[in-house]
Amino acid sequence: MEIVILGGRRQIGRLAADAIEQLLRRKPEAVLGLATGSSPLPVYDELAARHEQGLDFSRASAFALDEYVGLPAGHPESYREVVRREFTNRVNIAPENVHGPDGRVDDIPAACEAYEQAIAAAGGVDLQLLGLGTDGHIGFNEPGSSFASRTRIKSLVEQTRRDNARFFNSLSEVPHHVITQGLGTIMGARHVILLATGAQKAQAVRDFVEGPVAAICPASVLQFHPHATVLLDEAAASGLKLADFYRHTYENKPAWQGL
Ligand code: F6R
Catalytic residues (predicted)? Predict the structure, then answer.
């Protein structure tokens, strides 16, 4: 796991966008894994700006991490809408190549299985963006999630519902259930980039980066990922014991290595 501590959200957005740009130039038909929430927004802003300068997404495809169950079609906070509004509508990715779990179907297990098959049929995710819950979740894999889990329905813990209430008019509007890629699904991505900013993430960052690998902190499974990059601001990194070592390592990294 590579830990990179940066000055703020814009620098984080630029560095993650660099990795995505390099991937697209090397592999125009790349499969991107998209997160929602606040953390990836600077990445999407940066990619939209680079698209205006010519970065081409026409052969790429994308899979969202998760979706609320039960929000009506077109609800502005459904992740399908958020992904469209914040990212895919702002670049030239083909709408039919943008996928997300469907939280409105009757047969959720069948839809989850179909989603897994669609990811596999696309050749797997090349680069997965991740945010981090204050309870250590990635996707909506809450504490206790199996490290082998695949796409399925999950219940949100109250802390996550409260954290996400800022996107809704009130806490009561935040759904209790979600469909999320599993930890096993996420671990199948060839490269994962996790973004975390702000002091409210510091404890979860410390737990998953330097704590034991344990289901109580789902993101800790990334310690087993062969290519995981963690981009943090100073506040999110403030609880890390080895912060100076991570800074030193990144400052002295050979330029050819990339992320
Ligand atoms: C969203 C997702 C969640 C968020 C996490 C952090 O697709 O999978 O894991 O990434 O809850 O949310 P923010 O970035 O809003 O702090």
Answer: 66, 135, 137, 142
